[in-house]
C-alpha cells in the first residue's frame, strides 16, 4: 500500500492542500465518484470550497456520494447530507442535484442499505465485482471508528455487502454506510483529520496498524489497489 502523509499548519492550508489534490485527480479522471465523510471535519472543506473554489473546481465532473449517514432525516442537525447541503450545496449552485446522491437517513435502515448499495453497483466502476470509488474521504473518530464502523462492531468491516447498517455504541443511533470492503476498493482513500484529540489515534494507526487491526476499524483501511493519503493539521499529527 502506498501511503502519503500531508501535514498542514492550520485548517485553511489543509483545505487548500486537499483541494489541490482533488484538482490534480480531476486532470486525470474524466469523472470522479467521491464518497464524502461525515461528522464535523468536512465542514471546513465545504466552507472552503464555498468561499474559494466555486469557479475553480469543475463540479460537473464530480458526483457526490456518502460513506455513511446517520438514520435521521436531512432536517436533523446530525444528518451528514444536511451538513453538506448547508455548508456547500446551498452556496455552490454550480453543483447540480443530479450529482448529489445522498443516503436516505429517513428511510428504514436495512432497506436503505439495500437501495444505496444497488445504486453504487449500478453507477460506479467495478473492481473485483464491487463498486470502486475514485476517491473515498474518511474521518477518524477518537475511538478509532471510521465510516460509522465502531470498535465494538469491528467485524462488520469485512462484510461482503456493499452497504451495511451499524449502530453508535452510546446513542444507539443507527447508521447506513459503506462496508470496509467497498472503502478498500477505492482508487484513492483520504483521511482528513484535525485536532489534538485525534493525535494518539493517528499515531497508533500509522505507526502500529497491524497491532491495532483487531481493535480499531480505521486500522483496517488498506486500499487493495490504490493509494492512502492523510491530510492532517499539526495538532492531529503532533504524536507522529
Ligand atoms: C460519522 C462520520 C464519522 C466521522 C468521525 C469523525 O458520520 O460519524 O463519518 O466516521 O468521520 O466520527 O468525526 P469528526 O469529524 O466530527 O471528528
Please provide a written account of the structure.
With about 240 residues, the chain is an alpha/beta fold. It has a single domain (about 1-235), classed as 3-Layer(aba) Sandwich (Rossmann fold). It has six helices and eleven strands. The strands form three sheets. It has a six-stranded parallel sheet, covered by helices on one side. It has a three-stranded antiparallel sheet with strand order 4-9-8. Strands 5-6 form a two-stranded antiparallel sheet. Helix 6 (about 200-205) links the parallel strand 10 (about 190-195) and strand 11. Helix 1 (about 10-30) crosses helix 2 (about 40-50) and helix 2 (about 40-50) packs parallel to helix 3. The longest helix is centred in the first third of the chain and has 18 residues, at about 10-30. The relative contact order is 0.19. The mean pLDDT is about 95. The site of 6-phosphogluconic acid (6PG) has 15 residues, from loops.
Amino acid at each position: 500500500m502506498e501511503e502519503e502523509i500531508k501535514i498542514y499548519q492550520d485548517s485553511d492550508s489543509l483545505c487548500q492542500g486537499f483541494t489541490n489534490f482533488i484538482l490534480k485527480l480531476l486532470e486525470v479522471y474524466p469523472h470522479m465518484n467521491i464518497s464524502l465523510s461525515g461528522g464535523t471535519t468536512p465542514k471546513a472543506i465545504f466552507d472552503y470550497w464555498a468561499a474559494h473554489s466555486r469557479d475553480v473546481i469543475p463540479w460537473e465532473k464530480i458526483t457526490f456520494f456518502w460513506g455513511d449517514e446517520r438514520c435521521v432525516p436531512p432536517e436533523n442537525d446530525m444528518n451528514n447530507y444536511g451538513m453538506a447541503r448547508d455548508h456547500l450545496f446551498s452556496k455552490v449552485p454550480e453543483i447540480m442535484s443530479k450529482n448529489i446522491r445522498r443516503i436516505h437517513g429517513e428511510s428504514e435502515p436495512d432497506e436503505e442499505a439495500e437501495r444505496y448499495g444497488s445504486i453504487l453497483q449500478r453507477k460506479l466502476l467495478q473492481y473485483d465485482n464491487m463498486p470502486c470509488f475514485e476517491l473515498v474521504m474518511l474521518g477518524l473518530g477518537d475511538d478509532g471508528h471510521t465510516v460509522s464502523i465502531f470498535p465494538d462492531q469491528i467485524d462488520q468491516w469485512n462484510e461482503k455487502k456493499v452497504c451495511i447498517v451499524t449502530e453508535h455504541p452510546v446513542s444507539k443511533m443507527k447508521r447506513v454506510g459503506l462496508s470496509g470492503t467497498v472503502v478498500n476498493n477505492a482508487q484513492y482513500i483520504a483521511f482528513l483529520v484535525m485536532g489534538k484529540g485525534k493525535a494518539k489515534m493517528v499515531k497508533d494507526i500509522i505507526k502500529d496498524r497491524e497491532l491495532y487491526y483487531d481493535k480499531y476499524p480505521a486500522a483496517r483501511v488498506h486500499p487493495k489497489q490504490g493509494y492512502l493519503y492523510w491530510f492532517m493539521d499539526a495538532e492531529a499529527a503532533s504524536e507522529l
